[in-house]
Amino acid sequence: MSVHAAGPRTPRSSFSVLWRLAPYLRPVRLPVAxxxxxxxxxxxxxxxxxxxxxxxxDGPLHDGDMGAAIWxxxxxxxxxxxxxxxxxxxxxxxxxxxxxxxxxLRADLFGHLLRLPVSFHDRWQxxxxxxxxxxxxxxxxxxxxxxxxxxxxNSVTLVVGLAVLFSIDPLLAAVGLASAxxxxxxxxxxxxxxxxxxxxxxxxxxxxxxTVEETMLGVRVIRSYGQSGSRLRAFRAQAQRxxxxxxxxxxxxxALSTALLILPELGIAGQLALGGVGIADGSLTLGDxxxxxxxxxxxxxxxxxxxxxxxxxxxxxxxxDRYWEIRDTPPDLADPRRPRPPVRPxxxxxxxxxxxxxxPGSDRPVLRGIDxxxxxxxxxALVGATGSGKTTLAGLVPRLSDxxxxxxTLDGVDVRDMxxxxxxxxxxxxxxxPMLSSLTIRENVTLGAPGASDAEVREALRISHSLEFVxxxxxxxxxxxxxxxxxxxxxxxxxxxALARAIVGxxxxxxxxxxxxxxxxxxxxxxEQALHHVLSHTxxxxxxxxxxxxxxxxxxxxxxxxxxxxxxxxxxxxESSDHYRSLMSVSPHWTAGAADGEVMxx
Length: 602
Ligand SMILES: Nc1ncnc2c1ncn2[C@@H]1O[C@H](COP(=O)(O)OP(=O)(O)OP(=O)(O)O)[C@@H](O)[C@H]1O
Hints:
- By secondary structure, the chain is of the alpha/beta class.
- The chain has 2 domains: 15-327, ABC transporter type 1, transmembrane domain (ABC transporter transmembrane region fold), CATH 1.20.1560.10; 350-432 and 505-594, Rossmann fold (3-Layer(aba) Sandwich).
- The chain is 63% helix and 9% strand.
- The chain has 22 helices and 10 strands.
- Bound molecules: adenosine-5'-triphosphate.
- The chain crosses the membrane at residues 30-49, 69-88, 143-165, 171-190, 249-274.
């Protein structure tokens, strides 16, 4: 089970984190600029309304000229309508580019995840990856569509609004400014706390997703061990932690919002008091006071909005940080700079030379110097105690991991010098855990050989003894979509489909990691018989636990203490190696008969 969930990295300012999105915004800069332009135009319309109101009060209304007033009133209505239309235009313009940015970020993240080594996926919780691929990118899209635009536009609104206030009356403007300044300071101070809380809530959401995902995938085990109650308790505890984290975020936001609400009201009250004195001593007109209060009221929303936008910026920065945490992990299984062309036709000549391997994060080498050669067309069974490193060794051939030192060559070419696509076209793999996707049977089988014809698919299904149960699904069986992870099939059926997938492209080299473990002995023997026919033309490295599989091989390599402890035919090893005999559960006096094919159990 994967367990890793990275914490926040060295804190950096929200803006420097979010700046990394710039390359994604560049291609959509025109509609984004259009949306910002529309928002600024809407702001100008909104700010013009109090100035026209001032004119109406101090002009036509003061003089009793209703004819002139009508035109100005119509202008106010037109400005209001234009503001609403521009508001609509902004939303329409920003929707498509931000959705485009979101989908590009997601595609790049997903592509990167597929290039990251198996060891990365072993360490990371799948729920964390899921929540970063889905939730965090939704947060980023919403930030770009709303908060980022509002932050910019409302900052401009505040500056322009204060300038308008100063043009009406400097004293009233100073009162408005005095109420806005502490708000900006408070917003800045809240930002750091908010960012930490937002990051914690996002990490908790990732843990939560992991729990739900693991529970759904392991529902059979949970039910069969009567663990539903304990899983529910664990789920509730996690939901509680998520709730606490989210409540913390909301509390910080509530405190900030309260400050944002109260201070502008106090400012407007101050303006009314001072304005009243000004009108009384004649230094201010009624129109000036109405215009100043209207502008201040108008500025309440941008002020409030800046606080909200800063909080959203913190949330988005935390999501962005989580996104780049994965993108910054280097894919260690990249294509070489100057790939060597694959040998054509491939012979399947495999050599392991001085191969050593230590799992990342471990200090204990699993393989300590493996030298092994598989001649073209040869089948070699790899045998060893559980945990001896058979799967690890088999995974080095298709480069699921790379050797720590030494090298693996295929037809004389180091596999690290080949393009991954070229390598995987030559090497077919089947593992004990047959991962099937929720695709059709045909798509699952032709995963590594997309051009395979129906006849080739059916032949692979026949060899893997899958044809019978596949045909039982009906005439359109190949187009039948499997349930998630192939759960609508039995374990043995899934293994047989995975085997068909490995052999359908007739690869030059097959790597089979105990792919028949879920079959009954009788079916296994039949599949092996059919496989034997295929393997006579193909080089095969077969991880084997059962004597039947080992007996089918031309040679057997015994892996112990990270080295090849014995190499020979099944019969030779039965005679020469106590360790091999004990692994094959054969007593010494059985060896000759066993080698000739008598029944042995695992
Ligand atoms: N991702 C990993 N990180 C650290 N150690 C690992 C990792 N995967 C496997 N190991 C360790 O490497 C060793 C070899 O594991 P491997 O799965 O290759 O053994 P195996 O011979 O195939 O076992 P089995 O027969 O039970 O399938 C084991 O001790 C295992 O605990």
